Amino acid sequence: GAGVSQSPRYKVTKRGQDVALRCDPISGHVSLYWYRQALGQGPEFLTYFNYEAQQDKSGLPNDRFSAERPEGSISTLTIQRTEQRDSAMYRCASSSPSGGARFGDTQYFGPGTRLTVL
Amino acid sequence: GENVEQHPSTLSVQEGDSAVIKCTYSDSASNYFPWYKQELGKRPQLIIDIRSNVGEKKDQRIAVTLNKTAKHFSLHITETQPEDSAVYFCAASKENFNKFYFGSGTKLNVKP
User: CA B21 to CA B73: how far, in whole Å?
Assistant: First the structure.
């Protein structure tokens, strides 16, 4: 079936503009995660959802970053008043419960959105 | 919070040799440890994972070992092939919390 998809794949914006990054998880996946990956580094956790509920947003760098998943499927990560230091690859992942777990474990990643802030 | 350290940062081996990548973690409550392979310009792909109730898991040429007491786990690739060349990331999580903490990655280069 279809994997995790993200759009846009590339986003170039000017400093101070707002951006919205979209994630479409694997159909039926309960849990959805946002990560930021700097070049040559591992993904860094930002936030995650179970269904429509945001469970943990401790990784969001500051209050310019927010995320939502209003219907428990597609999610949007919004960055307000972008700054150059926000430039990075933003990755989404989703997972589904297995082995009797209540929520997902193995995470499947999307292709990412490469954000460049000029 | 959890801290995952990974080494080496780069590893170069001859085709057919074995490669070992090691990770340590700090939170003894972590109980799920996946490994991801990321080829240049592509998304991370899960290659193998292990839960804390087992000490070793194998899948063809790939194996992962876990030492809970020492809080470290390792990826072993045998009979390496050029297509194994990629960046490999380890991660740790508390299964019920689902937040993955990733290592900084190992760039594996398999020379033909």
Answer: 9
Task: Tell me which chain B residues have a C-beta less than 8 angstroms from the C-beta of A55.
Answer: 98
**What is the DSSP code (8-state) at residue A61?**
-
* Cα B76 from Cα B13, distance rounded (Å): 13
* Smallest CA–CA distance from B94 into chain A, residue: A105
Tokens encoding B4:
């995952």
Residues of A in contact with B91 (CB under 8 A): 42
pLDDT in tens, chain B (112 residues): 789 999 999 999 999 999 999 999 999 989 999 999 999 989 999 999 998 888 899 999 999 999 999 999 999 999 999 999 999 999 998 866 678 999 999 999 999 9
The answer to whether A58 touches A37, Cβ cutoff 8 Å, is: no
Provide the β-strand partners of residue A53.
A50
